[in-house]
Design brief:
Elements (H helix, E strand, L loop, with lengths): L17 H25 L1 H8 L4 E3 L8 E5 L2 H10 L4 H9 L4 E4 L7 E4 L5 E6 L1 H21 L8 E8 L5 E8 L52 E5 L14 E2 L1 H7 L7 H20 L2 E2 L2 E7 L4 H17 L7 E3 L8 E7 L3 E2 L2 H13 L10 H15 L2
Parallel strand pairs: 8-9
Antiparallel strand pairs: 1-2, 2-6, 3-4, 4-5, 5-7, 6-7, 8-11, 10-14, 11-13, 12-13
Amino acid sequence: MKSSTSSSSPTTNSSMDTALCKDIEHRIKAVIRYSLKRTAEEGEKYAKEMEKEKSIKMPKTNESKSYSFKDFRPLDFGMLRKLCGMNDRDYFASIGHSKFEWHEMNGKSGSMFALTEDRKLMIKTISKDESKTIRNVIVPQLLEYMKNEPNTFIVPIFGLHKFSLDNKSELRFVVMKYLFQPPPALPSSQLSTSSPSTSSSLVSPSSPSGTNNGSTTIGNGTSHGMEMDKIYDLKGSTTDRTAKEGETILKDVDLMNENIKFNVGQDLATELLFQFKKDVNFLTSCEVMDYSLVVGIMQPKDTVMDVTLQNYIKYNREEKLRDKFHVMANTTPNKQEYYFLGIVDYFTKYGLMKKAAKNIKSMKNDPSTISTVPPSSYSDRFMQFIFKIFV
């Protein structure tokens, strides 16, 4: 299993090996439970043990054969979770008490991902090279960056692990915040039942947006899911950037053909672009490329969800909370829709393989249109595209 792209179009889990998924799910839960317990009890001692490339042997159980696993940077990931408002108890509750919903990606990677039942977390399989980039390059810098940039669009990583499979291969996976999670409950002191047109009102999140009427859902559309009417995966390139028939996630050329702009208002657009620029500069300093801006568009199917999202946006901005830009409203009159934004898939280093891929693609396509380019070129083109679509 290779790298997964969370923004790629998923297939349903009906075609997947149910027994394999069940075994992997059991191991993921066991590994994370063990990691949290050892980190809480031993802290630095356990972290140093993991730095020595030592694997932990897990005994055979009724659910799984014996296997070995490796935990990466447990203290750093614990600090990232804390920084993002998720304590260890909630983290394991989201994972350990869930029945995962598995999906395969339609892309070339052959990877897969799972969502927790509460739609707070995503578990993604990744490649060996991506694992190295995350633990050696990204996480040490991301922790410091997120401390200083609470409004970053970079979707945070909460854990990195690997374990052996019965066929002697290894599975590496990350745990990340799920971009389309429902908004949390607001403080009771802020509750109100004002109509959506009253932008100053504050209410607590309630029921989901209702039935799926042709919308795109990464998730099963239950009370925990946020149904998106459209999802775009944007890289700023045009070669092979059109969704194939049957794919639910649209790409750059699809957006251009539809002539879509994200109307958030001039003042907010200026703020957003300033933050995007800082995030992209950070990723360039990590020498990574091939990341995407994911934009989910949701048109509320009922008044409750409409009010909930308006109040969530207002509360976040007034209280200057982390992630205040991750959900925002369209400002066009008589067009009520919301945008969910995040930068994902920032695990790819521009190494020898990518340089070779660039040379091959450049022989067949205009070099300025391909996604495989050096980090500085990638970031410049990415920002040029982003500047055009937020107004």
